[in-house]
Amino acid sequence: EAGVTQFPSHSVIEKGQTVTLRCDPISGHDNLYWYRRVMGKEIKFLLHFVKESKQDESGMPNNRFLAERTGGTYSTLKVQPAELEDSGVYFCASSPQTKGYNEQFFGPGTRLTVL
Amino acid sequence: AQSVSQHNHHVILSEAASLELGCNYSYGGTVNLFWYVQYPGQHLQLLLKYFSGDPLVKGIKGFEAEFIKSKFSFNLRKPSVQWSDTAEYFCAVNAGYGGSQGNLIFGKGTKLSVKP
């Protein structure tokens, strides 16, 4: 079974440009999460999808960030326009929507560098 | 706001030494507790978890953690580390709206370097 995949693995852009990150969850997982780790800091929650609906987007830093999950499958996270402080590693995780605890499976992350 | 503190940023041990990584959380309600590990070049993966019951939890690769409610702690231990344990370790709490479906709150991570 394929794990969570993320694309690209690394992106280097200039301040003011737009970048779109993609996450493909494990097939059949309804829950999809985005997290971010800024260098030297903790991994922080950004938002949570259940299928195509945003369940919790309390961690989104500002309106330059837009996440979508059309059709409840893969998700994209767009940063427009990118700022220097957006640099970091963006992780995606997925879990099944079943009763009780469901382990979150993480992808390898996308390292975003904004110059 | 809920938070997780990991006491050590970088720990360096020799093989066969014992390991204890500290983790404290701040949340007054019921919590689920986790330790994740990220080996060099690999994904974050779950090492062990605590939901309820026996506060001493055993995980993969000989790791264990003890939940002490009165101290809001969930320290990770291993009696004898190996070079292959070199990795970054993250303590996390799940105390969101959705119980077990909610987001994770992570500590800053502890890098463990084991010298052969």
Q: Which properties best describe this structure?
A:
heterodimer; A: 115 residues; 4-stranded antiparallel β-sheet; 11 strands; B: 116 residues; mainly beta; 6-stranded mixed β-sheet; 52% strand
Write the layout of secondary structure elements.
The complex is a heterodimer of chains A (115) and B (116).
Chain A: E1 5-7, E2 10-13, E3 19-24, E4 31-37, E5 43-50, E6 53-56, E7 65-68, E8 75-79, E9 88-95, E10 105-106, E11 110-114
Parallel strand pairs in A: 2-11
Antiparallel strand pairs in A: 1-3, 3-8, 4-5, 4-9, 5-6, 7-8, 9-10, 9-11
Chain B: E1 3-6, E2 10-14, E3 19-21, E4 23-26, E5 32-38, E6 44-50, E7 56-58, E8 64-68, E9 73-78, E10 87-94, E11 105-106, E12 110-115
Parallel strand pairs in B: 2-12
Antiparallel strand pairs in B: 1-4, 3-9, 5-6, 5-10, 7-8, 8-9, 10-11, 10-12
In short:
The complex is a heterodimer of chains A (115) and B (116). Chain A is mainly beta and 115 residues long.
Describe this structure in words.
Chain A is mainly beta. In chain A, 0% of the residues lie in helices and 49% in strands. Chain A starts with a strand and ends with a strand. In chain A, the strands form 2 sheets. In chain A, strands 2, 4, 5, 6, 9, 10 and 11 form a 7-stranded mixed beta sheet that branches. Chain A has a 4-stranded antiparallel beta sheet with strand order 1-3-8-7, with no helix packed on it. Chain A has strands at 5-7, 10-13, 19-24, 31-37, 43-50, 53-56, 65-68, 75-79, 88-95, 105-106, 110-114. Chain A is globular and about 45 Å long. Chain B has 116 residues and is mostly beta strands. The A-B interface holds A 3-4, 31, 33, 35, 40-45, 48, 50, 55-56, 59, 91, 93, 95, 97, 100-109 and B 4, 32, 36, 42-46, 49, 51, 90, 96-98, 100-109.
